[in-house]
Design goal:
Elements: E1 12-13, E2 16-17, H1 19-28, H2 40-49, E3 54-59, H3 75-78, E4 84-92, E5 95-102
Antiparallel strand pairs: 1-2, 3-5, 4-5
């Protein structure tokens, strides 16, 4: 099936995505929900910038390996986020799922 695709350029600041501008551009296109599945640097930037309304964490038993990057947020750390409340918890096989929403 042919799916419609639209490429959207992004401004950068210091070689990184200019998130406020990108989120504004997406909003102007009618996009009000965005799932970002990135690495630790992107997650940290979005959390520190206050752009995150919902956090979905999946935690497995496996190790990261030599080239793995640690998550900037774990369920234990999420409990210390004053602006967020845990709204869900579940298990998928041996992996755990935790969801938090900003209050």
């Amino acid at each position: 099936a042919n799916l419609p695709v639209q490429l959207l350029g992004s401004e950068t600041v210091g070689g990184h995505i200019a998130w406020p501008e990108l989120l504004e551009d997406l909003s102007n296109l009618g996009i009000s929900t965005l799932m970002v599945e990135g690495g630790g640097a992107i997650a940290t930037t979005l959390l520190e910038s206050g752009f995150v309304d919902r956090i979905s964490l999946f935690q497995g038993n496996g190790g990261l390996g030599e080239s793995g990057l640690a998550s900037p947020l774990t369920p234990t750390m999420a409990k210390t986020l004053n602006d967020y409340k845990q709204t869900a918890q579940g298990q998928f096989g041996q992996d755990m799922f935790f969801e938090y929403e900003r209050q």
